Amino acid sequence: MNNPLISPGLGTFVWMLVSFGILAFILAKWGWPMLLKSLKERETAISESLNAAERARDEMKALKADNQELLRQAKQERDAMLSNARQTCEKIIDEARIRATEEADRIVESARENINYERLKAMHELKNQIATLSIEIAEKLIKSELSDRQKADDLIQKELENAHLN
Fold this sequence. Notes:
By secondary structure, this protein is mainly α. The chain has one domain (39-165). 93% of the residues lie in helices and 0% in strands. The chain has two helices and no strands. The protein has helices at 10-146, 149-165.
């Protein structure tokens, strides 16, 4: 069991110690500063990344809030537009209803006037026909009455007496 790595001799131990000292010196002079600089840069990069992620998260919250506000405003505008459209529709329907009622009233009034005109015209024609028939009947009666000369003279005399009395 004489393994030099497990139980080194004094010379090996000194050279190992000198080699380790030189390595420690080289690392302390040039290695550690580079290593510490790299670790510091990495720490800074990680810190900046975390800050950027935090800012991004905050911005996302703000954007989400903005988006919700925009969505709320869009809904309000949509509701307002729908309300205006309903009001306009109701107004148009009411105007059309009023115009239709006025037109119907005008047509009814015109029909009444036409009915009155036609009724008066029919009454006038009926009176004319009655007058014509009365004249024809009177003419026939007079012809039959006046066929006798004596009767005609008596009728004329009677009518002349009546005419003087009035």
